[in-house]
Amino acid sequence: MRIGELSRRTGVNAHQLRYYEAHGLLEAERRANGYREYDESAVQRVRQIRHLLGAGLSSEDIAYVLPCAVGDAPELPGCPELLAAMRDRLRRLDEQMNKLAQSRDALAVYIGAAERMGGDNYPPFEDAGLAPAL
To answer: Which tens digits make up the pLDDT trace of 49-76?
Structure first.
C-alpha cells in the first residue's frame, strides 16, 4: 500500500509516517518511481508506535523496544534490558513531573502575591505599551 492508504488506515498523517521511517521505526520498499510501498504489517507497526508514543517513550526508546512488541497495544516481554530501559524512561518522566509541579507551585505563589498587592496603581499592559510574555 502507498503512504496515503497507510495514512487513511491508521489516522496518522503522511508527514509523521515519513518521520517514523526516517527514524527507523517503520520500513517501506521503494518502487521504481520512488513511491513508498508498505506491506500489511505496517498498519500494526504504526499502531504500536502510536501507543508507545502515548506512553511517553521517545523515538529512540521506541526504536529500542519495537522489535520486541507484539500486538496492537502492544505487549512487551519482560526481558531485563527492556525493563531497564522502560524504568529509566519512567524515572525521567517522574523527574520532569516533579520539576513541573515545582514550577507550578512557584507560579501560584507569584500569582497570589500579585493578587494581594492589587493592580490599581498600575496601568493596563496595553496602556503602558507592554504585553505579557505568557
So the answer is: 999 999 888 888 888 888 888 888 888 8
